[in-house]
Design brief:
By secondary structure, the chain is an alpha+beta fold. The chain has three helices and five strands. It folds into two domains: 52 residues, Molybdopterin biosynthesis moea protein, domain 2, CATH 3.90.105.10; 63 residues. Helix 2 runs antiparallel to helix 3.
Length: 133
């Protein structure tokens, strides 16, 4: 099995690891033969790489971080940074224009940092729960 960027996955490849959504629900079970439609759908929901079965690698790769936790962390970080972007001035918007908007930004900024801390704690907890150090 090997980890392959979704844009490099070929039609007919076999999924080696189950895919999960941000809430840990199963999206696609391991062993599924990937079609072009499935590959496109995986890419559209922002999953950037998948494990596929191939003839070159026979070892089972043990994840340090559970795939569902990794996916949730990546998704939360992207969501957080996209939210921060709306406060950055651009040609199309002046971002923060009033004291009210500034106060809202400060409150949201704290929520962004809280999200990042929560993600970091989840990842650290997962890593340190492994006994193979």
């Amino acid at each position: 099995m090997r980890l392959v960027p979704i844009e490099c996955v070929r039609e007919g490849s076999i999924l080696a690891r189950t895919l999960f959504d941000d809430d840990g629900r199963i999206l696609l079970k391991e062993g599924v033969k990937l079609t072009r439609n499935i590959i496109n759908r995986i890419a559209s929901i922002k999953i950037y790489s998948v494990y596929i079965i191939d003839e070159y690698s026979t070892k089972e790769i043990e994840d340090v971080i559970k795939p569902e936790i990794r996916q949730k962390a990546v998704s939360k970080l992207k969501e957080t940074f996209l939210s921060i972007e709306k406060f950055i001035p651009s040609e199309d918007n002046d971002a923060i224009q009033s004291k009210t908007q500034l106060n809202n930004f400060i409150k949201e900024r704290q929520a962004f940092f809280d999200n990042i801390v929560e993600i970091a704690n989840s990842l650290m907890e997962e890593i340190f729960s492994k006994k193979t150090f």
